[in-house]
Amino acid sequence: MTGPARGHIAQLVRHPIKSAGHETVAEALLTEGAAFPFDRVWAVAHAAARLTEPPTWAPKLHFLRGWGSAELMAISCTSDAATGTVTLSHPRRPTTSFRPDDAADAARLIDWLRPLWPENRPEPARVVRVPGQALTDQDQPFVSINSVASLADLSARMGTNLSPHRFRGNIWVAGWAPWAELDLIGQEITVGRARLRIEEPIGRCRATGANPETGLHDVDTMGALETGYGHTDFGVFARVIAGGRIAVNDEVR
């Protein structure tokens, strides 16, 4: 791998409810020391979760996630951060809007998700929000960065066109050499008007084998990564060290 040339933002994505919908956006305002805006604001804990009261950040095993149900990966969404409203869509569920901070809507959200969660797993139980803390898989306020070229390289190796939504990333960069992002650990990059420091690679799980259009497991991404590259990493986590607005087509250098 070689260091990346200048690239540009190809796509920006947020996921207001953890593991329950992806949404592309045209721009975002990054804040120093914060995760991607309106990303993983809420999560749905299952009945076996052991959370503190009031809830604080907790590991992903306490929540509904794509690893436990491929069906969740087929949820898409639109949202309004100003009103706290999220509209969810799925091939086998009615398109419905929720305000997860409202108790009645939170109960409706759990009912909406229940048919998409395996009956042999602890059932969806409560909607969780931790003010000022994104409920990402990491307890650090990271933004995830992924490479369009790396996705294309993995797709070619696997003989299928992989959707970027398998990887639940925030910032997708075009113009880098395949896998060059993994050489950036410890370095700083400028993205639009913001500056970020690349902290660590993103280790992946079997949820990436689920098709975001069908909600079915249809490929072995973990096996392809291990066999083809000797690891199961895809993308990198970054920390915002200087905030600023970023938008699709902004330069990344």
Note down, in words, how this protein is organized.
The structure is a single chain. Strands 1, 2, 9, 10, 11, 12, 13 and 15 form an eight-stranded mixed beta sheet that branches. The chain has a three-stranded antiparallel beta sheet with strand order 5-6-7, with helices on one face. It has a two-stranded antiparallel ribbon with strand order 3-14. 12% of the residues lie in helices and 33% in strands. The mean pLDDT is 97. It is globular. It is mainly β and 253 residues long. The chain has two domains: 142 residues, Beta Barrel (M1 Pyruvate Kinase, Domain 3), CATH 2.40.33.20; 88 residues, no CATH class. It is built from three helices and 15 strands. Strand 11 and strand 12 form a beta hairpin. The chain starts with 6 loop residues before the first strand and ends with a strand.
- Strand count: 15
The secondary-structure element order is: EEEEEEEHEEHEEEHEEE
Q: Round the Cα radius of gyration to an integer and report it.
A: 18 Å
Beta content: 25-35%
- What is the count of DSSP helices, taking H or I runs of 4+ residues? 3
